[in-house]
C-alpha cells in the first residue's frame, strides 16, 4: 500500500477519486460495489457528483464496470494493474480484458478474434505484445492440443486445461503413472497377502503353497488408505485427490492386478476398496515360480493320489508368462494371427 | 519346394495353381492339398477341423462325405451320389456311411414326405469327431481316475484297466460287456464287469440308442407337429393358445425321452449267480461325451481358482467339484438344441430352470469334502487369521477401522491343554455368532482325543477355504444354506470364458491390449479420449493397440458422423466390444489352429511315408539302431519329436478352444 500514493500521483487523480479508490480497494480486490454502496462510502447524495468521480476512475482504468445479473456494479482495480492497462493500446486492452475474463480456463485465440471483432493480424500483434510484456502467457490444453490458449501470466491453469496430475506439460506422464501404479499395487499387496508382494514367489521357491488370509480378515485397502500412504511416502510432487487414486486403481483393475473387494461394507462407507489379484502376484514371481511349479509337478507324479490334484497342474493360459519362446526351427508353433492372414 | 508347403503364402500358391502351360500340375496331390487347405482357411474352420479329423481316422472318402454333409446340410444317399464323383458307387457311399455311423460321425432321420415316400437323410454329427479329438485326453483322464490295480481285488500284471475298456469303446464306437469279454483275456470276468459298473455308475459309459443318432431338432419338430395336429381343428382355442399347448406337451415328452435314455438303472442289474452288480451283457455301451466335458469344465474352474484365490483353496475346490461332478447340471440343456432359444421368454425360462437345478442339485458341505481330500494336503498353515503386526499397528491408528483388529490377549485361550492350534479362528472374536458356536465346538473337541481335534480342525479349515471361494470377487461357490454350498455354473462359466479370453489377448497382443479391452468393456462405448483419460495411456499407444484389437475382432468401431455428408475426416470414432462376436471369432481362430496342427501332422507323415513304413515293419521294430541308417534314425527322431510337439500344442489349444465351444 505504501506505493499507492506515489502511483496515484503519477496518474494524477483528484483527491476525492483517490480516496474513493483507496476505500474500494480496502474492501478487498474482488469486491463489487453497487451504486448505493458507493454513495454510502463517499457520503455523496448527488449521483451527478458521484458519476464524475467514477468517470475519472474509469478513465484511468482504476475502476472496472461489471454486469452482474442485470445490475451494473463497480470493482476497484489495483493501481499497478491500471498502470498496465493504461500503457496498452486500445486493442491490446480489449484483448487483455477478454483474456482476463476467461480466468483460469484460458481463452482460445480464435475465440478472442471472434469476440473482439478484430482482424487476425491485429489480434496476433496484440497477443505478441502482451506476451512479450509478460502480461499473458499461452498454455497447452490437454483437451485441445492444437489450440493456442491464453491466460493471465500470474494464473495457474485449471485442471481441465492441464489434465490433472497425470499430465506434465500437456503430455501424459506415463513413467510417473507407472511408478505410482507399482507403488499402489505394492501397498495393496501388503494388505492382501500375509507375506506381502513377495509371498507367493518365495513360497514357490521353497515348493510350499503360499498362505492366505482367512476370510474374516479384512485384507483390502480403501482408496483413503492408499492416498494416506502415498501422501506420507511423499512420492508424488503434485497433490493427489481420492479421485485420482480411484483412477489409478481402476487402471490396475483393467490390468487385472487389483479387484474390487469389500462388497457391502465398502459400499456403505461410500468408498472403493481394492484387493490385489493373486494372478498379478504370481505373474510378478514368474522367474522364481517356473522352477517351483516344476518341482510341484514332480511331487504330484510321485504322489499316488495325484489324480485329485492333477487338474490344478498342467497347461493354463494364466501361466503364459512362464512359457518359453518357440525355437526358431520349430514348425509346429501355433500363431494367433495365422488364421486371419 | 518349401515355399509351397507353407500355407502362409496364399498369393504364391494361387499364382502357381493357375493352369499356366508348364506350370505345376493340378493333379499333384501335394499341391492340391495346399490349395484345399487354403480354401478351408477361408471357409469355416469347423469343417476344416472335422474333415481333418475324419481324414486321419477314417480316410479320404469319409472326409469327403463329412465335407458334403457340413457344406450342404442333410443329404440322402442318392443326393450324395449326385454330388460325388462318378467313380463312387452307391455301395461305396453306403459302406462309408456305416463306418461313420459306427463312430457317431453321422446321424440319420427317416422322413416321410407328403406322398408317403420314406427317405433317410443323413446329418453330420459332431460327437464322433469330438471323441476323436479328445480321445487322448479321455483315456488319460480315465487312467487317472481309475488307476490300474485299485479295483479292490489284487490285479495281475495283464489285467484289464478302465482305460483299456474306454479305449475299446472309443475305437469301435460302442461295445457291450459280452463283446469285450469275448475278446479280452481278462483273468476275472467279475473284475471287468465291476469296472463296467463303475464307469456306468459314474456316467462315463452310457447305452447307445437311437437317440444318439437322431437329430434333436428334428425330433422336436416331429413331437411338436404331433401335438399340434392332435388338437382338433374345431377347437375354440386361438392359434396362439394351440401353439403354447402343443409346445408344453412336446417339451414334456421330449425331456422324458432324453431322461429315459440317460437312465443308468436300465443297464445295471444284479448278477443272479453272484448277486454282484453288473451291467447287461448285451447292451452296447458308448462313451458319454457330455460327462467327460463336465470334468473338463471342473478343470477350468480349478485352474481359475488356483490363479484367483490360491493353490490350497483350488485343491479344496477341486475336491468339491469332483464330488459333485456327477450330479451337476449338464453342460447343455437339451431344449437349447431345439430352436426354442429363439424365443426370448423360452430362453429365459430355460436359464432359470438350470439355475434352479444348480441350487437344488449338487449341494455339499465341508464334511463331505474332508472325506475326499488327499491326505497329503496340508491345510493347517494355509490360512493366516491375523494380520501381520506392522499392518495392524498401522490400522490401529485409524480409530474407525478397529473391527478388523484382533485383541492380542485372547489368543492364549486357544492354547490350553498344551495343544497349540496355530491358526485357529480368531475371526470368531470379530463377533459373528455362528463362529462363536464353532469355537465352542473346538473347545469341546479339545477334551477329546487328538485325532478328533485334528478332524474338527480340518473341517474348520475347509470351511474357511469354502468361504474364501464364496467371497471371492468371482463367485466360485454360492452358499445355499449356512455351511452348504453349490457351484453356480451358469454365472461362473461366462466369467471363466472372459478371463481366459483376457489372458489369451494379454499373452498374444500384450498387457496393454488387455487393459484397453477391459476398459472398453467396463465403459461399454468409449472414444479414444476416454481411454486416454481412464486407462491412462498415451494416445499413440492406444491407437496402435486398438488397431490390432480391431483386427482380431476384440473391439469394434462405431462411427459417429458429425457432418451431413458423413465425411470420415470430421467423424468421431467410438469403440465398443461385442463379446459374443469376439468369442466366436476366437473360437474359429483356435479351431482353425487345431485343424492346422492336424493337417501339418498328416503332411509330415506323408512326407516321411517311406521311412515310417520301414520303421513300422515287423522285422525293423525293436532293432531300429541296427537296421536303419543314422540319417534315417535322425529323421525318425525328428518326426517323432515333431509329432509329440504337435500333440502338446494341440492339447493346449484344445483346452482354450473348448471354453468357447461348449461352455456357453
Automatic annotation (TrEMBL), chain A:
Protein name per Swiss-Prot or TrEMBL: DNA-directed RNA polymerase III subunit RPC6
Keywords: DNA-directed RNA polymerase, Nucleus, Transcription
InterPro entries in the cross-refs: RNA_pol_Rpc34, RNA_pol_Rpc34-like, WH-like_DNA-bd_sf, WH_DNA-bd_sf
Organism in which the protein naturally occurs: Maudiozyma humilis (Sour dough yeast)
Keyword Nucleotide-binding (UniProt): no
GO terms for biological process, alphabetical: transcription by RNA polymerase III
Chief location bin: nucleus
Subcellular location, record wording: Nucleus
Homology family: Belongs to the eukaryotic RPC34/RPC39 RNA polymerase subunit family.
Function statement: DNA-dependent RNA polymerase catalyzes the transcription of DNA into RNA using the four ribonucleoside triphosphates as substrates. Specific peripheric component of RNA polymerase III which synthesizes small RNAs, such as 5S rRNA and tRNAs.
One matching Pfam family: RNA_pol_Rpc34
Cellular component aspect of the GO annotation: cytoplasm; nucleoplasm; RNA polymerase III complex
From TrEMBL, chain B:
Swiss-Prot/TrEMBL GO biological process terms: DNA-templated transcription
Stated role: DNA-dependent RNA polymerase catalyzes the transcription of DNA into RNA using the four ribonucleoside triphosphates as substrates. Specific core component of RNA polymerase III which synthesizes small RNAs, such as 5S rRNA and tRNAs.
The protein's name in its UniProt record: DNA-directed RNA polymerase III subunit RPC3
Segments forming domain RNA polymerase III Rpc82 C -terminal: 195-495
Broad class of where this protein is predominantly found: nucleus
Superkingdom of this protein's organism: Eukaryota
Bias kind Basic and acidic residues: ranges: 386-398
Stretches the record annotates as Disordered: 1-30, 381-452
Amino acid at each position: 500500500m505504501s506505493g499507492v500514493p506515489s502511483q496515484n500521483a503519477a496518474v494524477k487523480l483528484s483527491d476525492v477519486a483517490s480516496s474513493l479508490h483507496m476505500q474500494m480497494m480496502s474492501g478487498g480486490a474482488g469486491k463489487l460495489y453497487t451504486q448505493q454502496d458507493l454513495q454510502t462510502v463517499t457520503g455523496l447524495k448527488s449521483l451527478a457528483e458521484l458519476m464524475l468521480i467514477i468517470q475519472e476512475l474509469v478513465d484511468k482504468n482504476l475502476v472496472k464496470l461489471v454486469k452482474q445479473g442485470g445490475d451494473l456494479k463497480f470493482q476497484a482495480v489495483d493501481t499497478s494493474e491500471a498502470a498496465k492497462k493504461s500503457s496498452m493500446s486500445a486493442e491490446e486492452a480489449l484483448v487483455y480484458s477478454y483474456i482476463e475474463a476467461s480466468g483460469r480456463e484460458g481463452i482460445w485465440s480464435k475465440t478472442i478474434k471472434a469476440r473482439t471483432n478484430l482482424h487476425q493480424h491485429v489480434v496476433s500483434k496484440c497477443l505478441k505484445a502482451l506476451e512479450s510484456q509478460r502480461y499473458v502467457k499461452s498454455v497447452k490444453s490437454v483437451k485441445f492440443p492444437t489450440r493456442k490458449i491464453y491466460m493471465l501470466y500470474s494464473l495457474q491453469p485449471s485442471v481441465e486445461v492441464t489434465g490433472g496430475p497425470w499430465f506434465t506439460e500437456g503430455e501424459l506422464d506415463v513413467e510417473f503413472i507407472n511408478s505410482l501404479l507399482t507403488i499402489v499395487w505394492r501397498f495393496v499387496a501388503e494388505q492382501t497377502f500375509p507375506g506381502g508382494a513377495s509371498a507367493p514367489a518365495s513360497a514357490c521357491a521353497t515348493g510350499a503353497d503360499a498362505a492366505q488370509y482367512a476370510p474374516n480378515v479384512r485384507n483390502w485397502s480403501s482408496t483413503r488408505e492408499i492416498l494416506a500412504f502415498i501422501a506420507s511416502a511423499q512420492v508424488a510432487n503434485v497433490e493427489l485427490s481420492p479421485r485420482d487414486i480411484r483412477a489409478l486403481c481402476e487402471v490396475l483393475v483393467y490390468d487385472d492386478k487389483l479387484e474390487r473387494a469389500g462388497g457391502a461394507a465398502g459400499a456403505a462407507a461410500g468408498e472403493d476398496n481394492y484387493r490385489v489379484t493373486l494372478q498379478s502376484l504370481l505373474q510378478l514371481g514368474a522367474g522364481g515360480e517356473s522352477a517351483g511349479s516344476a518341482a510341484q509337478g514332480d511331487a504330484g507324479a510321485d504322489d499316488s493320489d495325484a489324480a485329485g490334484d492333477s487338474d490344478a497342474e498342467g497347461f493354463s493360459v494364466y501361466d503364459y508368462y512362464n512359457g518359453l519362446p518357440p525355437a526358431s526351427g520349430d514348425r509346429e508353433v501355433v500363431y494367433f494371427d495365422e488364421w486371419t492372414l | 519346394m518349401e515355399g509351397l508347403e507353407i500355407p502362409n503364402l496364399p498369393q504364391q500358391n494361387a499364382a502357381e495353381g493357375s493352369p499356366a502351360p508348364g506350370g505345376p500340375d493340378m493333379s499333384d496331390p501335394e499341391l492340391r492339398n495346399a490349395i484345399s487347405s487354403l480354401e478351408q482357411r477361408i471357409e469355416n474352420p469347423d469343417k476344416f477341423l472335422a474333415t481333418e479329423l475324419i481324414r486321419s481316422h477314417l480316410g479320404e472318402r469319409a472326409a469327403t462325405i463329412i465335407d458334403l454333409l457340413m457344406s450342404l446340410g442333410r443329404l440322402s444317399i442318392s443326393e450324395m451320389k449326385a454330388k460325388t464323383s462318378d467313380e463312387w458307387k452307391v455301395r461305396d457311399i453306403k459302406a462309408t456311411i456305416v463306418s461313420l455311423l459306427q463312430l457317431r460321425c453321422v446321424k440319420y432321420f427317416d422322413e416321410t414326405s407328403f406322398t408317403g415316400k420314406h427317405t433317410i437323410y443323413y446329418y453330420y454329427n459332431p460327437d464322433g469327431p469330438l471323441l476323436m479329438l479328445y480321445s487322448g485326453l479321455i483315456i488319460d483322464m480315465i487312467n487317472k481316475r481309475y488307476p490300474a490295480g485299485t479295483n479292490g481285488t489284487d490285479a495281475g500284471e495283464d489285467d484289464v484297466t478302465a482305460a483299456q475298456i474306454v479305449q475299446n469303446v472309443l475305437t469301435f464306437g460302442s461295445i457291450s460287456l459280452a463283446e469285450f469279454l469275448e475278446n479280452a483275456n481278462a483273468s476275472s470276468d467279475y473284475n471287468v464287469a465291476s469296472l463296467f459298473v463303475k464307469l456306468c455308475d459314474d456316467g462315463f459309459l452310457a447305452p447307445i440308442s437311437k437317440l444318439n443318432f437322431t437329430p434333436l431338432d428334428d425330433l422336436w419338430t416331429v413331437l411338436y407337429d404331433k401335438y399340434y395336429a392332435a388338437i382338433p381343428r374345431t377347437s375354440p382355442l386361438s392359434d396362439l393358445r394351440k401353439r403354447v399347448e402343443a409346445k408344453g406337451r412336446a417339451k414334456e415328452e421330449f425331456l422324458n425321452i432324453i431322461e429315459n435314455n440317460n437312465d443308468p438303472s436300465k443297464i445295471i442289474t444284479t448278477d443272479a449267480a453272484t448277486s454282484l452288480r453288473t451291467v447287461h451283457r448285451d447292451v452296447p455301451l458308448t462313451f458319454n461325451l457330455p460327462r467327460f466335458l463336465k470334468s473338463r469344465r471342473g478343470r477350468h474352474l480349478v485352474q481359475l481358482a488356483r490363479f484367483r484365490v490360491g493353490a490350497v483353496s483350488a485343491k479344496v475346490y477341486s475336491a468339491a467339484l469332483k464330488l459333485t461332478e456327477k450330479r451337476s447340471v449338464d453342460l447343455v440343456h437339451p431344449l437349447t438344441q431345439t430352436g426354442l432359444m429363439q424365443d426370448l421368454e423360452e430362453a429365459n425360462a430355460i436359464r432359470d430352470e438350470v439355475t434352479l437345478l444348480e441350487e437344488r442339485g449338487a449341494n455339499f458341505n465341508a464334511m463331505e469334502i474332508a472325506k475326499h481330500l488327499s491326505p497329503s494336503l496340508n491345510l493347517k498353515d494355509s490360512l493366516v487369521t491375523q494380520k501381520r503386526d506392522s499392518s495392524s499397528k498401522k490400522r490401529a491408528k485409524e480409530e474407525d477401522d478397529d473391527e478388523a483388529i484382533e485383541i492380542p490377549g485372547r489368543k492364549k485361550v486357544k492354547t490350553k491343554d498344551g495343544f497349540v492350534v496355530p491358526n485357529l479362528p480368531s475371526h470368531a472374536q470379530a463377533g459373528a455368532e455362528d463362529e462363536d458356536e464353532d469355537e465352542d465346538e473346538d473347545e469341546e473337541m479339545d477334551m477329546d482325543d487328538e485325532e478328533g481335534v485334528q478332524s474338527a480342525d480340518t473341517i474348520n479349515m475347509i470351511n474357511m477355504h469354502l468361504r474364501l471361494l464364496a467371497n471371492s470377487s468371482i463367485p466360485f461357490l454360492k452358499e445355499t444354506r449356512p455351511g452348504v454350498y453349490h457351484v453356480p455354473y451358469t454365472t461362473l462359466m461366462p466369467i471363466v470364458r472372459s478371463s481366459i479370453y483376457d489372458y489369451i489377448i494379454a499373452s498374444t497382443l500384450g498387457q496393454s491390449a488387455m487393459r484397453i479391452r477391459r476398459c472398453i468393456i467396463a465403459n461399454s462405448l468409449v472414444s479414444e479420449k476416454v481411454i486416454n483419460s481412464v486407462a491412462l495411456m498415451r494416445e499413440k499407444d492406444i491407437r496402435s493397440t486398438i488397431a490390432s484389437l480391431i483386427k482380431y475382432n476384440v473391439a469394434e468401431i462405431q462411427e459417429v458422423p458429425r457432418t451431413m455428408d458423413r465425411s470420415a475426416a470430421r467423424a468421431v470414432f467410438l469403440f465398443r466390444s461385442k463379446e459374443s462376436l469376439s468369442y466366436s471369432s476366437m473360437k474359429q481362430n483356435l479351431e482353425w489352429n487345431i485343424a492346422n496342427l492336424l493337417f501339418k501332422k498328416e503332411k509330415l507323415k506323408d512326407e516321411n511315408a517311406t521311412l515310417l513304413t520301414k520303421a513300422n515293419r515287423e522285422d525293423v521294430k525293436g532293432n531300429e539302431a541296427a537296421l536303419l541308417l543314422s540319417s534315417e534314425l535322425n529323421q525318425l527322431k525328428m518326426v517323432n519329436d515333431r509329432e509329440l510337439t504337435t500333440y502338446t500344442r494341440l492339447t493346449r489349444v484344445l483346452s482354450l478352444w473348448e471354453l468357447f465351444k461348449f461352455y456357453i
